[in-house]
Amino acid sequence: MKNLTVETFKTFTRASVLPVGSKSITNRALILGALSNQECVISGALFSRDTEIMVDCLQKLGFDIIVNKTDKIIIIKGGEIKNNKANLFIGNAGTVARFLTAFVASKVGGEYFFDSDEAMYERPMKGLLEVLEAQGAEFEFVKKAYHFPFKMRTNGLKGGKMIVDASASSQILSGLMIASKVAQNECEIVCDNTVSKPFVEMTSSMLKQFPCANYAVEPDATASSYFAILPAITGGVCEIKNFAKCKLQGDAKFVEVIEKAGIVRTQKCEDNLLVFGVDEFSNEALDLDFNDISDTFLTLASVCAYLPRKVKITGIAHTRKQETDRVSAMASQLRKVCKNVVEGEDFIEITSFTAEQNCKTRTEINAVLAEKLPEKVIIETFNDHRIAMSFAVLGCANIGRNWIEIENPSCVSKTWCEFFDVLKKCRADSEKFRVVAVDGGAAVGKSSVSKSASASLKYMHVDTGAHYRNLAYILLENNVSPDDLDALRNVLSELKLSTAVVGNSAQILCSGKVLKDSDIRCERINSVVSVFASIPEVRDFLKNYQRSMADFAKEQCFSGMIMEGRDIGSVIFPDAQMRIFLDADEETRAARRAHEGITDSIKKRDALDKNRKVAPLVCPEGASLIDTSHMTKDEVVAKAISLILNS
Ligand code: DC
Question: Residue 287, class by beta-carbon neighbours within 10 Å (0-12 exposed, 13-18 middle, 19+ buried)?
Answer without folding.
Answer: exposed
